[in-house]
Amino acid sequence: MMNSMVYPLSRLLQPIWDYCASYVADITCLTANDIYVLHGRTPHEMVTGNTPDISEDIEFSWYQPIFYYDDIRFPDSKRNIARWLGVAHCVGQALCYWLLTSAGQVIARTSAQQLTNDDLLSEVVQQEILEFDQCIEQLLPSGALENTRAITDNLLSNDIYGQDCDEPYDPTASMPEQDELPDRT
């Protein structure tokens, strides 16, 4: 059964940022980083003792264009373009996602689907994405969407902690002793 919760937004930009912040927090909590006290484990694993399942968090990228199905009726399912905003925790079943529609509404759906390479090369789909973005731009203050894309690209880069996160974890590393630290006087 498809979840059809709809959340209208009067001020679009602020709620989009809330979804981005939630997505970044989820990814940060569910992925390992080089913080020494974690010993190569994820923050989630350190707190709960369980290895996290990140499959629903990595299915899509934030604000990625996707297809979702509205009013699924065989054989005439209506496929729509939306932008992916994150995992809808505690809503619907597994793999339920928050999607931004062209009307500026955030909806929860389990029918989200990746656009294939063929879809992305299709002039019809490219036109649908362009029309979607134009609808969203009309709902936002001038220039807000470009600023949102630039800032989220920076937030979602590998440089979340101000250092290269691709650096491998070294299990033989040890905490330096006080007398080994450089003098900062």
Report on this model:
This protein is α+β, with helices and mostly antiparallel strands and 185 residues long. The protein has a domain at 6-18 and 63-161. 31% of the residues lie in helices and 14% in strands. It has a five-stranded antiparallel beta sheet with strand order 1-5-4-3-2. A hairpin with a 5-residue loop joins strand 4 and strand 5 (106-109). The termini are far apart.
In short:
The chain has 185 residues and is an alpha+beta fold.
Can you lay out the helices and strands and say which pair or pack?
Elements: E1 6-7, H1 13-30, H2 43-48, E2 65-70, E3 78-87, E4 97-100, E5 106-109, H3 117-121, H4 123-139, H5 144-155
Antiparallel strand pairs: 1-5, 2-3, 3-4, 4-5
Distinctive features:
185 residues; alpha+beta; five-stranded antiparallel beta sheet
Mean pLDDT: 74
Largest sheet: 5 strands, antiparallel
Terminal Cα span: 65 Å
**Shape, please?**
elongated
How much strand? 5-15%
| Poorly predicted parts | 1-12, 158-166
**Helicity range:** 25-40%
What is the count of helical runs?
5
Structural class: alpha+beta
As a whole number of angstroms, the C-alpha radius of gyration is: 20 Å
